[in-house]
Write a structure and sequence with these properties.
Rossmann fold, 3-stranded parallel β-sheet, alpha/beta, 286 residues, 6-stranded parallel β-sheet, binds 5,10-Methenyltetrahydrofolate
């Protein structure tokens, strides 16, 4: 039997149309949610993502400021830009596109962002609040994954969730959010010995590895839900995930495609966080 497709594009559309309604309500009170996106250097992939974010903002009636600076931009100058955005009442969300050039300390930059405008959910205050289950801006990709599971009525409670990848922006928080939903969570990573031994026991498998078509059906438990966070290029330069989609289609019960899976949800959650910030509410982690 062929797996059910988890349609991130359709789900993100649905969420975005709900966001647009709330943006309109805010507009009646004279408030326009504003997102500032800061981009340093000229990484072509970053440019594509950033343009996408801007387009989405505008489609939803939100304001989006793109602040672009050359590769040589100094750390001190960037910290000053952030300080100005922190103090700008019309800016509700600040996103500094990662990765940053090597001469800029990423952690210092994240620390400089006002936690009340931290729509990426990367500030230690946001991370800490998420970890202890308090209100916080949730990181967009893991939050988008949880929304997809919810949309497809997949309840993580009591399930064994295996997360491959332990980055601060995807793997680690994805495991935490699944834990909050009462999953039993296993983290795997580049030093895991016999990866398939773990993944074959996963009811829910989250892959954030960054290797094209790395996971075939030998890694998948029959009936598993497979969430592919990978954004890779295959041998023909085509966008593809970590999962060999065709190969696992008859083994998994549900699967996210790349593109059209987790990626569009990431952007929708960024919009939601910016809206929430403008509403002066914070997301609930319960
Ligand atoms: N501070 C910061 N916050 C981020 O959220 C952040 C970042 N830095 N740096 C880069 C990564 C990457 N990222 C993506 C978001 C959406 C898609 C997305 O929409 N992907 C589409 C395909 C897009 C295409 O066709 O290229 C999809 O999967 O269908 C991809 C990647 C956010 N990131």
């Amino acid at each position: 039997m062929s797996a059910t497709l988890i349609d991130g594009k359709a789900t993100s559309q649905k969420i975005k149309s709900q966001i647009a309604v709330r943006v309109e309500q805010l507009a009646q009170q004279g408030i326009v949610p504003g997102l500032a996106v800061v981009l340093i250097g000229d990484n072509p992939a970053s440019h594509t993502y950033v343009k996408n974010k801007k387009k989405t903002c505008e489609a939803l009636g939100m304001r989006s400021d793109l602040l672009e600076f050359p590769e040589s931009f100094g750390e001190g100058e960037l910290l000053e830009v952030i300080s100005n955005l922190n103090n700008d009442p019309e800016i509700h969300g600040i996103l500094v596109q990662l990765p940053l050039p090597g001469h800029i300390d990423e952690f210092k930059v994240i620390l400089a962002i006002d936690p009340d405008k931290d729509v990426d959910g990367f500030h230690p205050v946001s991370v800490g609040n998420m970890m202890i289950g308090r209100e916080a801006f949730l990181p967009c990709t893991p939050h988008g994954i949880m929304k997809l599971l919810e949309e497809y009525h997949i309840d993580p409670a009591g399930k064994h969730a295996v997360v491959i990848g332990r980055s601060n922006i995807v793997g680690k928080p994805a495991g935490q959010l699944l834990l909050q939903r009462d999953a039993t969570v296993t983290y795997c990573h580049s030093r895991t010995v016999d990866l398939a031994e773990y993944t074959r026991k996963a009811d829910i498998l989250i892959s954030a590895v960054g290797r094209a078509k790395f996971l075939g059906k030998e890694y998948i438990k029959p009936g598993a839900v497979v969430i592919d966070v990978g954004m890779n290029r295959d041998e023909n330069g085509k966008l593809c995930g970590d999962v060999d989609f065709e190969d696992v289609l008859d083994t998994a019960s549900h699967i996210t495609p790349v593109p059209g899976g987790v990626g569009p949800m990431t952007i929708a959650m960024l919009m939601e966080n910016t809206l929430l910030s403008a509403e002066r509410g914070l997301t609930e982690t319960k």
